[in-house]
Design a protein that fits this description.
heterodimer, A: 239 residues, mainly alpha, globular, B: 305 residues, alpha/beta, six-stranded mixed sheet, 11 helices, 14 strands
Chain lengths: 239, 305
């Protein structure tokens, strides 16, 4: 079943991986292209470089947008595509529980997001080394896993819409609308702590090196809730 | 061992406020080829989805090989092979990948059985399923269904897209093989000739209700035409009387001849008619065309069984 799921999403995965790796790998070069080489002491330069990477990959601009869109695109197709293509009946005729069906699909998508997140961080690391900058591996990994954990929330929400909606397009539109509304919160500073992205792209942990427990817990709960809701809905839904 | 393969007891299924199946009861004995007839929208696919546990009953009970389809859905599906009317297979996979998927999601899997059928149908292993014709998809779906060695094969309109040769192969060779192996076949169709060719038990569904459930041999035996020839014109009151007799579903008059379509008790009917004030001078018992009898049930003209 895992092979079938991977074959199903292979083109989406390939496109996403190329965009993500390309964008991530370009971020260290973007600093040089637009601002020139950093000056000052090595510590100062490294610190500024870390800040640049955070600002241009882990924060609002590139990484979250790419991962948000990809998680939504993946999640929307998980059940709605099976329904619109009529294969859901065949799938349900196999001796599999609905939990196993949904969790396998979800796990394949979540694993795809994780692999691309790690590869993107490796791309950043390699580009940085080419330019002669070093990145703190622990901070990079911590931020990458947090980033991935954050991306599971849009995946879970899109999965909910994939179960509720009768086709992939509707599921996609509902998911985009939900996250567009959700991210409006970021524009209002005092409401930022209510936004997922506030935790997803933890500046404090990345730049100051403290382990973001609260952010991890928040992102974990935010990822778990839509998944549990999706499992419940999938049990109730009649096809 | 369970002697009833499928038991449907007072099943009602609603889609929202619409009642699709009403108080439907069925019993499919083990080892039979059970033809399930009905026009489009009569409730055949909903019945099959309920048998597979895909749709939950609003009321009533459904058991497959003694397993409750709601609570023991996985057990049910591990004993059932299913071929859908729309051949909903994964188009982006080839046969080898599809077999791997089915193997991974089956409790028992016999690749050699699948290979036998794939060879019989000469299906190309490496070609994507999206390049297959509808007939090839049916053949593949059947081959895959056989791979898990099902005790019950549920076929939802399987012959609709087959060419005459493939249809012949399907009906006689495959269904024959399957039945010879003692498996139960639940065969839904709206093609009367297919059901007549292979089934030994038939049920007709109309408007979500079972209007007929009988063995085909029993139907042949009970559904006969009495051809009554009268010496002169028959009074209208007498025709009405004939029409009102028990087990008479239809009475047609053509000149001096009246044809009574019966659903049983032929000898008793003949005795009754002979004792009338206007007895016919000749009574002939004819075999009825089973296809037309079933058609009348499907159309809802008959619901007397």
């Amino acid at each position: 079943m895992i092979t079938k799921e991977l074959l199903d999403i292979r083109w989406k995965l390939l496109v996403f991986a190329l965009i993500s790796l390309g964008t991530a790998g370009f971020q260290p070069f973007s600093l040089v292209s637009f601002s020139g080489q950093l000056s000052g002491t090595t510590v100062q330069r490294t610190s500024d470089f870390q800040a640049h990477i955070w600002e241009h990959w882990f924060y609002l601009s590139n990484g979250p947008l790419i991962f948000l869109l990809f998680a939504i695109v993946l999640g929307c197709g998980l059940i709605a595509t099976e329904v619109s293509q009529g294969t859901i009946t065949f799938l349900f005729s196999r001796p599999l529980s609905r939990n196993r069906i949904l969790l396998t699909k979800y796990a394949v998508s979540a694993a795809s997001l994780l692999i691309v997140a790690i590869l993107s961080s490796i791309a950043i690391l390699v580009s940085s080394m080419i330019l002669g900058y070093t990145l703190d591996m622990i901070r990079l990994l911590t931020a990458t896993f947090l980033f991935w954990l954050g991306s599971l929330t849009p995946l879970g929400c899109a999965l909910i819409f994939s179960i509720i909606a009768s086709d992939t397009l509707r599921a996609l539109l509902w998911s985009l609308l939900t996250f567009a509304v959700g991210n409006v919160l970021l524009l209002i500073p005092r409401w930022q702590p209510w936004s997922l992205l506030y935790y997803w792209s933890s500046r404090q942990s990345y730049l100051q090196g403290t382990f973001p427990f609260a952010e991890y817990i928040f992102c974990f709960i935010a990822a778990l809730l839509p998944l549990l809701l999706a499992l419940w809905l999938f049990h109730l839904k009649e096809y | 061992m369970n002697k009833v393969a499928i038991l449907v007891d007072h099943l009602t299924v609603n889609y929202g406020s619409q009642c699709v199946l009403r108080d439907l009861s069925l019993e499919v004995p083990v080892g039979t080829i059970f033809g399930f007839l009905g026009r489009n929208g009569a409730g055949k696919t909903t019945t099959i989805k309920t048998l597979l546990g895909i749709r939950r009953p609003t009321a009533g009970k459904v058991e497959v090989l003694g397993y409750d389809v709601v609570r023991q859905h996985i057990e049910v599906c591990s004993h059932v092979g299913y071929v859908s009317e729309t051949h909903n297979l994964y188009d982006y996979l080839n046969i080898t990948q599809m077999c791997a998927f089915c193997r991974d999601t089956s409790r028992r899997w016999k690749q050699n059985i699948v290979d036998t059928y794939l060879d019989l149908f000469a299906l190309p292993r490496t070609q994507k399923i999206k390049q297959f014709s509808k007939g090839m998809k049916t053949q593949l779906a059947l081959s895959l269904a056989m791979g898990s060695e099902p005790d019950i094969l549920i076929l939802d309109e399987p012959t609709a897209d087959l060419d005459p040769i493939a249809r012949e192969l399907f009906l006689h060779t495959l269904i024959g093989d399957i039945a010879a192996a003692g498996k139960t076949v639940f065969f839904s169709s709206h093609i009367l000739s297919d059901i007549e060719a292979v089934a030994d038990h038939v049920a007709v569904i109309e408007g979500g209700r079972i209007v007929l459930s009988a063995e085909l041999d029993e139907l042949r035996e009970t559904h006969k035409i009495l051809r009554l020839t009268y010496p002169e014109g028959l009074p209208p009151a007498e025709l009405e009387y004939l029409q009102s007799l028990p087990h008479v579903s239809q009475a047609k008059q053509e000149g001096q001849v009246v044809q009574l379509h019966t659903t049983g008790m032929v000898n008793e009917l003949v005795s009754l008619i002979k004792e009338r004030l206007y007895p016919p001078h000749d009574i002939e018992t004819l075999h009825t065309d089973l296809g037309s009898v079933l058609l009348e049930y499907i159309k809802g003209i008959r619901n007397d069984h």
